[in-house]
Design goal:
Length: 154
């Protein structure tokens, strides 16, 4: 798009600390506060900060699986879950997920969210009551899709 004569121009930068970035963030914060003041006030309260939820499975004196997540407001967000190859298909993933959900519910969570690649674990999460709510095809630019899944916890 060509700018109007004497109007505006677009500049480019290589990082998010470039001049103008703080203003862009400020404008979005101001808009969000005007459009959804209750939510934005909640986010600003210390008791609503994201709380880490990290679980590991130890067997034979070593870690063989783990889950890295956080809870915030009514949501459990699972970032990473993995099990050592030789320990897969033994129920560790299910146990990790169940424990994360149990702890999240104790923290007041009502929902869970996870994203996973099509070659990772969409079937695992579907088998545990999650539903696909979105997909980005070719997420990795190599033909693999990314799925977004949620579950109501209670």
């Amino acid at each position: 798009m060509n700018p109007p004569a004497g109007g505006w121009s677009i500049a480019s930068a290589d990082d998010a600390s470039a001049p103008g970035c703080d203003l862009v963030r400020q404008w979005l914060r101001e808009h969000n506060h005007a459009a959804n003041p209750v939510f934005m006030r909640q986010l600003g309260q210390p008791e609503h900060e994201a709380r880490p939820l990290v679980l590991t499975v130890v067997a034979d004196g070593r870690e063989v699986g783990g889950l890295i997540a956080e809870t915030r407001l009514a949501w459990l967000r699972i970032s990473i879950m993995a099990v050592a190859p030789e320990w897969r298909s033994r129920g560790l993933g299910s146990a990790l997920l169940e424990e994360a959900v149990r702890r999240a519910v104790e923290r007041g969570c009502v929902h869970a969210y996870v994203d996973t690649m099509d070659y990772q674990a969409p079937g695992f999460y579907l088998a545990h009551g999650f539903a696909i709510v979105g997909e980005i095809p070719d997420w990795d630019s190599s033909g693999h899709g990314k799925f977004f899944l949620t579950k109501r916890l209670r």
